[in-house]
Amino acid sequence: GPVYAPPPGRNLRDPSIIHHGGRYYVCHTTGNFGQTNVFSIISSDDLTHWDHLTDVSMAPVGGVRWTWAPEWFMDDGGSLHIFVSASTTP
Prior knowledge:
Strand content: over 45%
Shape: flat
Number of helices: 0
Number of strands: 6
Structural class: mainly beta
Helix content: under 10%
Strand order of the largest sheet: 1-2-3-4
């Protein structure tokens, strides 16, 4: 069976995983084909037991209505960031 199921009414699409500081982190699209302005972050110590950490709302960013495909990246200084595809129109 699945090792993680998102909260009711949410999806887990477009996952991006990174191992950092001894933990695994996944950021993922929560809506169906990006039809939400929220993405989520989950974490695990062992890739089997996952905890939902947070939902990240993009609503405060200039009227963003659709968000999808968040991706982790680490800059040259070792700081973690997430970039995400976003749109104000369908």
